[in-house]
Known about the structure:
The protein is of the alpha/beta class. Helix content is 44%, strand content 16%. The protein is built from 19 helices and 14 strands.
Amino acid sequence: MSILYNFSIKLYVIAIHFAALFNNKAKLWVNGRKNIFLKLEKATKNQESIIWFHCASLGEFEQGKPIIEGYKQKYPTHKILLTFFSPSGFEIRKDYEGADWVFYLPSDTKSNAKKFINIVNPIKVIFVKYEFWFNYMSECKKQNIPFYSVSAIFREEQAFFKYSWFTKQLQNITHFFVQDNTSAGLLKSKGFTNTSTSGDSRFDSVLENTKNPKEFPLVKDFCKCKPTIICGSTWPKDEALLSQFIKENPQFNYIIVPHELGNINALQKQTNAQLFSTANTKNINSSNVLIIDSIGILSHIYQYGNIAYIGGGFGSGIHNILEAVTFGLQVVFGPNYKKYKEARELIALGGAKSISSKEELYKAFNHFNNFDQTIDTSYITSRSGATETILESL
């Protein structure tokens, strides 16, 4: 199985180099890793007490952010190295001031893992949520470097609970900080008792966001005229449904924040929208649709809405719904939500609805037609505190 795993890593690298010839995201992935060991060595040379945090992408970063910042407060002399796997995280957070250095993670080969660890020589390693790169984990174990998995969540259908080789890889983890008791129970069934049920640090992250959100006066002016539906992290399948609803329901304002910006021109034509980048005080209300063509501000835009539609549910899974809920918004999303505990809980509480068709989208928005009603934000506050639990143990 080890041979197969290492072969699959190398095959993935070959495939993404090929994709980089015609795909911009793949090109960023490849270019971002050029000469990476030279850059790492130059950046971290003669540095001590380095804590290495790793996140797959932007969503995991939002989980890791309160832990990074809390750790830095407790240990201001320690250095923070932050790595990303995906361009979606790195390109947006490469200038993140909470870390001393931000890099892409070299692919998980045995030689890369050994070289990376030898250069950085971290005193602790913290991977967020679903990230399990087995060669890096193994190398940390060999060099007696504590390795922590934080805000982790496990499900019975994962390979860890079906195949012994995958289960064995978890022995390289010093401690698991899991989101729920189900995850702890699954680990216990395989003999792992080095667990703490700490909760989900995203609740701390989104709660912090409400205390001092960035203000956007133009967006605020846009939302004054009509009740506003915020469509966050949308993909083309989401946008196809939303475009039909927008045409037939001019009584609302709409703010669309696409997950990727490559489809902006087509989306603008579909919805007759105003672009945020070209908006000003004179034209901000020239359309009832505003497309945010800037990256990294969605979590602050939710403060101006009444209802949120969260994208991704017609693909691999929904994006962050807590960013909207923390501002009291009811949320609507596609059918692929079942692996997200917060989505299931909010549906049960009546604060969220899942849809799989145009008709269901109409019903969901109509269900939330009382725009004075908001989600009780105690849902967020009652589940906060994971960061402090993790930091006390670290």
